[in-house]
Design goal:
The protein is α+β, with helices and mostly antiparallel strands. It has three domains: 77 residues, no CATH class; 194 residues, C8orf32 fold; 88 residues, Immunoglobulins (Immunoglobulin-like). Helices cover 36% and strands 20% of the residues. The strands form four sheets. The protein has a six-stranded antiparallel β-sheet. It has a four-stranded antiparallel β-sheet with strand order 11-10-13-14, with no helix packed on it. The longest helix is centred in the first third of the chain and has 18 residues. About 2% of the residues have low confidence.
Length: 396
Amino acid sequence: MKKILWGFILAGIIFTSCQSEYKGVPKSYHSLLDSAFLKAGENVGELETVLQNTKKNQKEAAAFLLAYMPKQDLQSLSSNYILDQINGAFQAREEFVWCENLPDSIFLNEVLPYYNLDEKRDNWREDFYNRFSPYVKDCENIYQAIDSVNFNIMKELGVEYNTKRSAVNISPFQAIEEQMATCTGLSFLLVNAFRSVGIPARIAGTPLWTNMRGNHSWVEVWVDGEWYFTEYYPDALNKSWFLADAGKADPQKPVHWIYAASYKPAETHYPLVWDRDFREIHAVNVTDRYIRLYQEQLVGNELKEDDILVDIVLYQNENEQSGQGRISQRVTVFDGETQIDFGYTPLPTDDLNKFLKFRLKKNKTYRLEFAGAEGQQKSKTIDTGNSDEVIKIFRD
């Protein structure tokens, strides 16, 4: 009975004290803020301080963050942390023309947010702004800014792909300390780097490719009304090794969908492969867009009925079949004595789902040639089947 009474008293205190703090906040947020303040419990004073100390032009941004903030953050984040994030986002909005011209809805949902998924809430924004603003200060448009961040982030942070990282969802500062992360952690870094200089960005990915070879995460950036994908190890916008896999996603099976995270509520939740019961990250289903992009890429280059894609990976030896055991080296494929294609196998720092791909014929014999550990020529005969497959070869 005492707990119920205290709940009513607390609700009354919050309602009375918070209504005065809503001055300058659009009415559409008022009921959402009422709910957020109740969820905050003993941390409600920190949230009140946020609304009290935001400038007039930042009121809606503060309300947006608090209204859709996860419960655990409402109960734990300090006002200083939240204000740092708000002030940093507006610093970018005022300084960079591409951010100044963003629709408010994009700025709020893809520049202002302080997290990607369920990572530790590092207060990264000022540090990342100091790191990446020098790269974009002379950029004339958002395309130049994206490239300036994308092609300098590894040099700036020193973080490389490595499966020995301490956690899949490693936080930005921890990844920098360890100098390693896998695709999810690398994507956190890139999203935050983009957001720190006013480039709208979000994490995207799939919990499972339709070829059943695992999951993957990457980054999307918003440019002039369109979303484009990129990665920590960049190619060009909307170009990457994984598009062929993403383009084969199954729209009928959520486990194979392509998801893009959202701060505000959206049509579904973002599935976390390391915590399958966690459903608090909002997400948009963007599967159809990736299928369309892949189909557009295939125009004039479609697989014929008797074609097959063969994925090649080269390891140091049979005992080193891990990411760190991969060797990047030229591999040539022969049909009899005729060379038909060549390419380079993935590096140890490449994503585990990345392979050297050859377009071959079904049910046919080929020969692969590559250099052994001592530089000697080695070869391996392969027989293709009726479906896409992975071929492992060994240098030793």
